[in-house]
Amino acid sequence: IAGITQAPTSQILAAGRRMTLRCTQDMRHNAMYWYRQDLGLGLRLIHYSNTAGTTGKGEVPDGYSVSRANTDDFPLTLASAVPSQTSVYFCASSDSGTSDTGELFFGEGSRLTVL
Amino acid sequence: GEDVEQSLFLSVREGDSSVINCTYTDSSSTYLYWYKQEPGAGLQLLTYIFSNMDMKQDQRLTVLLNKKDKHLSLRIADTQTGDSAIYFCAEMNTGFQKLVFGTGTRLLVSP
Q1: For residue B21, with 0-12 CB atoms within 10 Å meaning exposed, 13-18 middle and 19 or more buried, which class applies?
Q2: What are the Cα distances from residue A62, in Å, to A7, A54, A85, B59?
Q3: Is the minimum CB–CB distance between B9 and chain A shorter than 8 Å?
């Protein structure tokens, strides 16, 4: 059972470079999310998608973009990475239409360091 | 806007009870959650409580909800070293169908 797969697990990136974090789920969940986790700040929502073909901005969207071409994939792109984007990034999904608890299922995270 | 606050750190001895506290601001929250994050892993749902409940018990876990004070707590009875992790409180924003997470409380259980 795969659930949510994120890639890469870890990456060191030079400032100014473009980077795409990949996220794939095999649970056919309609909603997907990208969070970043920073010490002392918890998890902050970057972007979300309630269904394929739609996306929305979260709490900290600047410098990031997403797309949702199909149900399974939700890539996060940093167009021009900056050191403040050094963080651990988590992708998550939920079956928001039918779930009676709103539970989110998380990937293992992608650790990104921007130098 | 929504704001969820937790203390950052809690240390207990094995066998003791742990109580992790959380305050939130959105009075329209439908569900409140506790997620657990073990080292190097993503978050997993530990338990949740519906907003019309005051208490929920699940084996060693007890969740208490005080809606008047917007206070949520998680009590872990007979805490074990395997309970060492970061615990996140979260509230469901019903308007956007998204979760708002707290800062997380790192629980350290010593033998």
Answers
A1: middle
A2: 21, 18, 10, 42
A3: no
CB atoms closer than 10 angstroms to residue B65: 21
- Measured in angstroms, the CA of B59 and the nearest CA of chain A are apart by 19
**Which among B42, B103, B104 has CB closest to A106?**
B42
Closest CA to B79 of B10, B21, B31, B30: B10
User: Hey, is B84 helix, strand or coil?
Assistant: coil
- Map tokens 């003791």 to a residue: B16
pLDDT tens, chain A, 115 aa long: 679 999 999 999 999 999 999 999 999 999 999 999 998 888 999 999 999 999 999 989 999 999 999 999 999 999 999 999 999 999 999 987 666 677 889 999 999 999 9
Q: What tokens were used for A61?
A: 């969207």
Q: Do B93 and B85 form a contact (C-beta atoms < 8 A)?
A: no
Q: Which two tokens stand for residue A99?
A: 């779930």
Size of the A and B interface in Cβ pairs below 8 Å: 59
Distance CA A27, CA B7 (A): 34
Q: Under DSSP, is residue A85 helix (H, G, I), strand (E, B) or coil?
A: helix
